[in-house]
Protein backbone atom coordinates (compact mmCIF):
# COMPACT_ATOMS: atom_id res chain seq x y z
CA UNK A 1 0.00 0.00 0.00
CA UNK A 2 1.37 3.40 -1.01
CA UNK A 3 -0.26 6.77 -0.39
CA UNK A 4 1.52 8.28 -3.41
CA UNK A 5 1.76 7.00 -6.98
CA UNK A 6 4.54 4.45 -7.41
CA UNK A 7 6.39 6.69 -9.89
CA UNK A 8 6.63 9.41 -7.20
CA UNK A 9 8.39 7.12 -4.74
CA UNK A 10 12.04 8.07 -4.38
CA UNK A 11 14.81 5.95 -2.93
CA UNK A 12 17.65 7.94 -1.40
CA UNK A 13 21.21 6.72 -1.81
CA UNK A 14 23.47 6.31 1.21
CA UNK A 15 25.38 9.45 0.20
CA UNK A 16 22.21 11.51 -0.18
CA UNK A 17 20.83 10.32 3.15
CA UNK A 18 24.05 10.96 5.11
CA UNK A 19 24.61 14.37 3.51
CA UNK A 20 21.09 15.50 4.38
CA UNK A 21 21.53 14.15 7.90
CA UNK A 22 24.81 16.01 8.36
CA UNK A 23 23.33 19.35 7.27
CA UNK A 24 20.33 18.88 9.53
CA UNK A 25 22.59 18.07 12.50
CA UNK A 26 24.62 21.23 11.88
CA UNK A 27 21.40 23.24 11.81
CA UNK A 28 20.22 21.52 14.99
CA UNK A 29 23.40 22.53 16.83
CA UNK A 30 22.19 26.16 16.90
CA UNK A 31 18.80 25.48 18.49
CA UNK A 32 17.90 26.49 22.03
CA UNK A 33 15.27 23.86 22.86
CA UNK A 34 15.59 20.06 23.02
CA UNK A 35 15.65 18.68 19.50
CA UNK A 36 16.52 15.71 17.34
CA UNK A 37 17.09 14.94 13.66
CA UNK A 38 15.10 12.25 11.92
CA UNK A 39 15.98 10.82 8.52
CA UNK A 40 12.86 9.82 6.62
CA UNK A 41 12.41 6.28 5.32
CA UNK A 42 9.67 4.75 3.20
CA UNK A 43 7.42 3.80 6.13
CA UNK A 44 7.52 7.39 7.41
CA UNK A 45 6.46 9.09 4.19
CA UNK A 46 4.86 6.70 1.66
CA UNK A 47 3.06 3.98 3.58
CA UNK A 48 2.37 2.92 7.13
CA UNK A 49 3.05 6.49 8.37
CA UNK A 50 4.54 5.54 11.69
CA UNK A 51 7.31 7.84 12.91
CA UNK A 52 9.32 6.34 15.73
CA UNK A 53 11.11 8.94 17.83
CA UNK A 54 14.52 8.53 19.49
CA UNK A 55 14.23 6.53 22.71
CA UNK A 56 16.47 8.78 24.83
CA UNK A 57 14.73 11.93 23.61
CA UNK A 58 11.32 10.52 24.59
CA UNK A 59 12.61 9.27 27.92
CA UNK A 60 14.10 12.67 28.81
CA UNK A 61 11.53 15.07 27.35
CA UNK A 62 8.17 13.40 26.65
CA UNK A 63 5.63 11.69 28.91
CA UNK A 64 5.02 7.95 28.96
CA UNK A 65 1.31 8.63 28.37
CA UNK A 66 -0.33 9.27 25.02
CA UNK A 67 -0.97 12.88 24.06
CA UNK A 68 -1.84 15.05 21.12
CA UNK A 69 1.30 16.72 19.78
CA UNK A 70 1.19 19.82 17.62
CA UNK A 71 3.59 19.85 14.67
CA UNK A 72 4.25 23.42 13.57
CA UNK A 73 6.01 24.27 10.32
CA UNK A 74 7.95 27.50 9.66
CA UNK A 75 4.86 29.24 8.31
CA UNK A 76 3.03 28.63 11.58
CA UNK A 77 0.67 26.01 10.14
CA UNK A 78 -0.23 23.44 12.76
CA UNK A 79 -0.93 19.73 12.44
CA UNK A 80 -2.14 17.55 15.26
CA UNK A 81 -0.57 14.14 15.63
CA UNK A 82 -1.04 11.43 18.21
CA UNK A 83 2.07 10.68 20.26
CA UNK A 84 1.91 7.12 21.58
CA UNK A 85 4.03 7.17 24.72
CA UNK A 86 4.51 3.44 25.25
CA UNK A 87 5.73 3.04 21.66
CA UNK A 88 7.58 6.38 21.51
CA UNK A 89 6.26 7.57 18.18
CA UNK A 90 3.84 9.67 16.16
CA UNK A 91 0.87 8.03 14.53
CA UNK A 92 -2.49 9.61 13.68
CA UNK A 93 -1.95 12.98 12.01
CA UNK A 94 1.63 12.30 10.94
CA UNK A 95 0.36 10.99 7.59
CA UNK A 96 -1.29 14.30 6.75
CA UNK A 97 1.83 16.24 7.70
CA UNK A 98 4.11 14.00 5.61
CA UNK A 99 1.88 14.08 2.53
CA UNK A 100 1.10 17.82 2.75
CA UNK A 101 4.82 18.59 2.89
CA UNK A 102 5.70 16.07 0.15
CA UNK A 103 8.36 14.40 2.27
CA UNK A 104 10.57 11.86 0.54
CA UNK A 105 12.83 9.01 1.51
CA UNK A 106 16.17 10.46 2.65
CA UNK A 107 14.86 13.86 3.73
CA UNK A 108 16.17 14.88 7.15
CA UNK A 109 13.88 16.85 9.46
CA UNK A 110 14.75 18.68 12.64
CA UNK A 111 12.17 18.38 15.41
CA UNK A 112 12.48 21.06 18.10
CA UNK A 113 10.38 20.62 21.26
CA UNK A 114 9.27 24.20 21.96
CA UNK A 115 6.56 23.23 24.47
CA UNK A 116 5.71 19.98 26.24
CA UNK A 117 3.23 19.10 23.48
CA UNK A 118 4.58 21.05 20.49
CA UNK A 119 7.29 20.36 17.95
CA UNK A 120 8.54 23.00 15.59
CA UNK A 121 9.48 20.97 12.53
CA UNK A 122 12.21 22.93 10.79
CA UNK A 123 13.50 22.62 7.22
CA UNK A 124 14.01 19.38 5.48
CA UNK A 125 17.42 18.82 4.01
CA UNK A 126 18.11 16.79 0.92
CA UNK A 127 20.71 16.39 -1.76
CA UNK A 128 19.88 17.10 -5.38
CA UNK A 129 23.21 16.31 -7.01
CA UNK A 130 26.03 14.35 -5.48
CA UNK A 131 27.63 12.34 -8.25
CA UNK A 132 30.75 14.53 -8.42
CA UNK A 133 32.50 14.68 -5.05
CA UNK A 134 34.47 17.81 -6.04
CA UNK A 135 31.30 19.77 -5.44
CA UNK A 136 27.76 19.15 -4.43
CA UNK A 137 24.57 21.07 -4.86
CA UNK A 138 22.29 20.96 -1.86
CA UNK A 139 18.75 22.10 -1.55
CA UNK A 140 17.14 22.49 1.78
CA UNK A 141 13.61 23.59 1.99
CA UNK A 142 11.31 24.95 4.57
CA UNK A 143 8.35 23.19 2.96
CA UNK A 144 7.33 26.37 1.14
CA UNK A 145 10.70 27.94 0.37
CA UNK A 146 13.73 26.39 -1.24
CA UNK A 147 17.32 27.50 -0.96
CA UNK A 148 19.98 26.31 -3.36
CA UNK A 149 23.57 26.04 -2.23
CA UNK A 150 26.44 25.21 -4.50
CA UNK A 151 29.64 24.71 -2.62
CA UNK A 152 33.06 23.18 -2.79
CA UNK A 153 32.95 20.07 -0.64
CA UNK A 154 35.85 21.27 1.50
CA UNK A 155 33.86 24.40 2.43
CA UNK A 156 31.23 22.40 4.31
CA UNK A 157 32.33 23.68 7.72
CA UNK A 158 32.48 27.28 6.55
CA UNK A 159 28.97 27.07 5.10
CA UNK A 160 27.48 25.58 8.27
CA UNK A 161 28.64 28.53 10.36
CA UNK A 162 26.27 30.86 8.48
CA UNK A 163 22.89 29.20 9.15
CA UNK A 164 21.23 32.42 10.22
CA UNK A 165 22.10 34.04 6.88
CA UNK A 166 21.14 30.96 4.90
CA UNK A 167 17.92 30.39 6.82
CA UNK A 168 16.45 33.87 7.31
CA UNK A 169 12.98 32.42 7.87
CA UNK A 170 14.05 30.63 11.03
CA UNK A 171 14.10 32.67 14.21
TrEMBL record:
Pfam families: B3 (PF02362). Residues 36-127 form the TF-B3 domain. Keywords: DNA-binding, Membrane, Nucleus, Transcription, Transcription regulation, Transmembrane, Transmembrane helix. The chain crosses the membrane at residues 135-156. It comes from the Eukaryota. One of its GO terms (molecular function) is DNA binding. GO terms for cellular component: nucleus. InterPro entries: B3_DNA-bd, DNA-bd_pseudobarrel_sf, REM16-like. It is found in: Nucleus. This is TF-B3 domain-containing protein.
